[in-house]
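agent> call fold_tool(seq_1)
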Amino acid sequence: MASAANAAESPTVLIFGDSLSAGYGLDIDQSWSALLQQRLEEQGYEHRVVNASISGETTEGGVTQIGAAIDEFSPELIILELGGNDGLRGFPPERIKNNLRAIAERARNSGAEVVLLGIKIPTNYGARYTQAFEAVYQEFETELDLQWIEIFMDGVALNDELLLEDRIHPNAKAQPILLNNAWPIIHATLQAL
């Protein structure tokens, strides 16, 4: 077992998201964050993965929590996966973008790099809101010049075989797919550090 001193010396990757990253309904070792730790170790990275994701979290909650998470873990890289709960609650897109910007700016001011995992919401919220919500990520990425993926749940969101019974949250079979979706930007960012 690594000593606390060794763990403190390892650079940290902080996953800062909601239930999609928290491993909702799964054993913790099944989550894509646990799989990310395994992949990093297999590829020779010394980083430790800290999953600070909270089921039900919104971007507003993220704004209030990011400072404490940075202070506690001093991450080198923050994987930001928030906004889905805001969209499902119909929060104004401009407010979502402002919250994401505040989180990213706080992270960058600490010296951390940030990558963004984009979210889509069901189309039953109406075309106008759905388009405005999805544009948040595109605009945010452009304004802050962030690495991002457009659809974190790509290949999972509409496949009942990869979802829990609630047909929202990814099951254990989906976790490697989520990791593979996020891996290219995580890997590229770590290589550039």
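agent> call fold_tool(seq_2)
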Amino acid sequence: MKKLSNEAQNGDYVLPQPTPEPNGVIGTTYKDSAPDKIAVINLPKGAPNVLMILIDDSGFGQWGTFGGQTPTPKLDRLAKSGISYLRFHTTALCSPTRAALLTGRNHHSVSMGTITELADGYPGCSGQIPKTAAMFPEILRQNGYATEYIGKNHQIADWETSLSGPYDRWPSLQGFDHFYGFIGGETNQWQPPLFRDTTPVEMEIPKGREGRRGG
């Protein structure tokens, strides 16, 4: 990623970035007028792709990457080409762990002390991630990256999951350009209630698979 400004290096980096002061000149006629340049943020040459995979409900002994018993050569190859973090904190629950991963903060500090269906009025447990806790994809997006969220999203308070919204805490308003997946804790494996951004996707269930579910 491109080098951060002096403000960012000093800990004063904020989102969204302040609108730059206009430098265009409006004169009496076009001859003594000059337009400003429109700022377009582009990634620098050689900027890395960022791929993050979170596997729900999986113990340390299951997956090959980082020491499990099941061979996963392609995942191993991906891991070796990236950065390995050795002190990742898991909360043993999917919603809080995902919230901590996406924000880089303790799950209670972003109001995700438990899964969203069990959210309540206790401090740190409302299931409503505050807008003051920027998601890392928002930082990537505002620095020129295209971002997408695919798969399970279990980060929306239960009473904010209807088709009428509000959509403030859906992925497409948390730094992701696009979202394709489901929003609850579990779903039907053959006819999942999928969304493209905030629009439901119609799925046909295969014959003989009616009523079967999976996490």
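agent> summarizing second result for user.
Confidence is low (pLDDT under 50) at residues 1-8. The domain at 50-202+209-215 is CATH 3.40.720.10 (Alkaline Phosphatase, subunit A).
agent> awaiting next instruction.
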